[in-house]
Structures
1.
Amino acid sequence: TQLLEQSPQFLSIQEGENLTVYCNSSSVFSSLQWYRQEPGEGPVLLVTVVTGGEVKKLKRLTFQFGDARKDSSLHITAAQPGDTGLYLCAGAPGGDMRFGAGTRLTVKP
Amino acid sequence: NAGVMQNPRHLVRRRGQEARLRCSPMKGHSHVYWYRQLPEEGLKFMVYLQKENIIDESGMPKERFSAEFPKEGPSILRIQQVVRGDSAAYFCASSPPTTGHYGYTFGSGTRLTVV
């Protein structure tokens, strides 16, 4: 069983659509991070959420941390082909970061 | 300010050979983490090191795998007597001492292919 469960595993949508991906756990985290990984590259940090209920916006991306700090969501408005990639959530229950299996997003033009 | 540098980017080894993967952390970062990624999968934690110390190696196979982060020079992930199942992308990340829980900086990875 994964510490962080991400859903859906795969998502294929048309340009201009909205989408939400989820990251859930039974554990409480002091913070959660979201990364995006493109083919052939390492993950790149998008955002860190720290406070329960916190909402952060990064252009068309909206990140929310659950009130109980066990889950997080990423909402993308008007998706573009450049948003294509693997979206990973991560948290550090102990001294080092553990990752979910990711949501692989494809945005078709 | 250079990011996390990993080399080589691609490495091909025959079964039974040794693979050495190098990682130079960002300037000012003293914590290094190694992860393995299989195709179509997420990142699996392997080992967490500080200078001259292994902090957590719970994700690393007990046999054939070792890691070090010497006082001088890059961190090295060493795989002895490689097998086909070792083929994967290996990523290194670094963080400064006090902000590790606020995100890591990753390198571009080393893609190991065992033939």
Note: Chain A touches chain B at residues 6, 30-31, 33, 35, 40-45, 48, 50, 86, 88, 92, 94-102, 104 (CB under 8 Å).
2.
Amino acid sequence: GQNIDQPTEMTATEGAIVQINCTYQTSGFNGLFWYQQHAGEAPTFLSYNVLDGLEEKGRFSSFLSRSKGYSYLLLKELQMKDSASYLCAVVFGGYQKVTFGIGTKLQVIP
Amino acid sequence: GAVVSQHPSWVICKSGTSVKIECRSLDFQATTMFWYRQFPKQSLMLMATSNEGSKATYEQGVEKDKFLINHASLTLSTLTVTSAHPEDSSFYICSANMGGGNRYQPQHFGDGTRLSIL
């Protein structure tokens, strides 16, 4: 299968740093996306990794290790508006078809 | 700004009604679009891949005759839920890749359509 695993829920404090992990089956891997989805809304693109290493974009960073089938999304200086679900999505095989994880619901508390 | 437009945002209708949802790519041509369904507290599930000028490719378990997909132009794909029933109530979302076949381009999503069948 193309199992994508990520924690279902996390809680973190405003101003803190939180890391959301994602593991996936490595066979057929062709890239990994992170999306943010607020309740009742469509997902919005955050980051893309296809090579090993860290990609930084403002307060958000994403890391990939292809050999380990592992990625994480790092959110710094958390704000209340960061409360949302974070979806790990992997391209397997086909160059456009994306498989989504169940998403990690992050709650930021004061 | 938005690169994919989806319409309508909300639909509430009686059981047995057919509902059409439109997905448009704005300012770019999308030979391929994707239709997803998301039930509460669940992940996005790919229903089908919409291909311009040819038949859609459906995922296992998705009924072709119930979820009709038409991709008649390079900027428009439609999903028609035929004879909808309460169990079809869900959040339907389309997406398109701006880079054509480029794997390094993310999929951009429409705003979604919340379908409620009474």
Note: Chain B touches chain A at residues 6, 32, 34, 36, 42-46, 49, 91, 93, 97, 101-104, 106-112, 114 (CB under 8 Å).
